[in-house]
Amino acid sequence: MRRSIPRSIGDVLEDFIRQNNFDLKLQEIAVVEYWHELMGSAMAKYTRKIYIARGVLYVEITSPVVKSELFMNREELCKRLNEYAGTEVVLKIVFR
Fold first, then answer.
1. What is the pTM of this model?
2. Torsion sign (Cα): 84, 90, 91, 96
3. For residue 3, is it within any domain?
4. CB-based burial label for 49 (10 Å; 0-12, 13-18, 19+)
């Protein structure tokens, strides 16, 4: 029986996440959750659906006025979301 050096469960999980490329998916989930914090409760209540696919953040907005305002600020929003993630997770934002 081979004995190994004892490691904390946090280190083992971190290695598992890195080896299986789950870190990008976890960052995407964090960005989606951060959307409501970034927008605040007043703007976030107009958000119906939000998800990321292939680096594109899709946001379904219920108000045309809010959608127009967000569309004009999408570059800044993309920048702030990526700063939060610490890496370039969102390449583009599409409002529907």
1. 0.81
2. negative
3. no
4. exposed
Closest CA to 70 of 81, 84, 54: 81
Q: Which two tokens stand for residue 32?
A: 């989606």
Predicted confidence (pLDDT) per residue in 27-85, tens digit: 999 999 999 899 888 888 899 999 999 999 999 999 999 999 999 999 999 999 999 99
* Residues in Cβ contact with 84 at an 8 Å cutoff, skipping those fewer than 6 apart: 30, 31, 34, 38
Q: How far is CA 77 from the centre of its chain?
A: 12
Can you give the residue range of the structural domain that contains 65?
31-95
- How many Cβ atoms from other residues are within 10 Å of residue 93's Cβ? 20
